[in-house]
Amino acid sequence: MRIDLIGKTALVTGSTQGIGAAIAAGLARAGARVGINGRGEGSVAMAIERMDAERIGGRLMEGEVVAAPGDVSTDEGCERVLSALPHVDILVNNLGIFGATPALEITDDEWRRYFEVNVLAAVRLTRAYLPGMIERGWGRIQYIASDSAVAVPIEMIHYGMTKTALLAVSRGFAKAAAGSGVTVNSVIAGPTHTGGVEDFVYQLVDNDLPWEEAQRAFMREHRPQSLLQRLIEPEEIANMVVYLSSPLASATTGGAVRVDGGYVDAILP
Ligand SMILES: NC(=O)c1ccc[n+]([C@@H]2O[C@H](COP(=O)([O-])OP(=O)(O)OC[C@H]3O[C@@H](n4cnc5c(N)ncnc54)[C@H](OP(=O)(O)O)[C@@H]3O)[C@@H](O)[C@H]2O)c1
């Protein structure tokens, strides 16, 4: 399969690092013009510099990357992003915050903050970009969900709630786009090797182990339900997102597609 996104414009929220940065790089490698988003102009500029360095280093990146800074959990931040990228063909709602808090100690403010950052930001951007996609007869919208959507962790039920909500939001907007040429899906990502995760792993397993062994020990002892038995690399999530963003994925809509290493003990979705 050859994925060609030349001529398409994409926005990936929260793409200055981690899974978002890998998705942005994957879309750019397929030829899309990609908006890089984070809260500050500085972090966005640094991410673009890193991508340009990769390009020079030989990992072919066809598409242009452009700055689209703004805190998309606020109206003002969204407006900033919309003025940088008034129209997109591909919207990847990747932004998501997470953190552990005992279930009965999550305050009202925290519940609201999680909802505003992880759910409402994605809804607001969908509302802004979906009508244009429908009008043009082509578009791709994705929401990066998590195994926590269906296997809600006891230490992060506020996070799990937002990821379950994204599955409903995705299914609902797919109905709103029915028959238009626009597809809307969510991607259920499993435990992934992103910034901070290595430190977290070494807090739980023998510090002297090399990374490969350390992560396998971590998965075996602390994430035994994973069939992959290692952390997922951000590029492995990105590969699915790039495929779903492409014309090749034209018959996949309203779904929740898993890239979870078999973490969720279920056959469907
Ligand atoms: N990591 C995992 O194991 C895992 C597993 C399943 C699902 N996921 C999901 O995958 C997605 C990405 O996770 P990650 O671990 O790659 O994230 P991450 O490394 O923590 O990166 C977060 C990104 O979001 C940006 N950001 C934070 N708040 C923002 C805001 N209000 N507006 C705009 N940008 C903002 C940050 O940029 P600035 O600091 O520059 O603002 C950064 O680029 C999330 O939805 C997460 O729930 C992750």
Automatic annotation (TrEMBL):
InterPro entries: NAD(P)-bd_dom_sf, Sc_DH/Rdtase_CS, SDR, SDR_fam. It comes from the Bacteria. Its EC number is 1.1.1.-. Coiled coil: none annotated. The keyword Protein transport does not apply. Keywords: Oxidoreductase. CDD domains: SDR_c. It is an enzyme of class 1 (oxidoreductase). It holds the Pfam family adh_short_C2. One of its GO terms (molecular function) is oxidoreductase activity. Belongs to the short-chain dehydrogenases/reductases (SDR) family. This is SDR family NAD(P)-dependent oxidoreductase. It comes from Nonomuraea marmarensis.
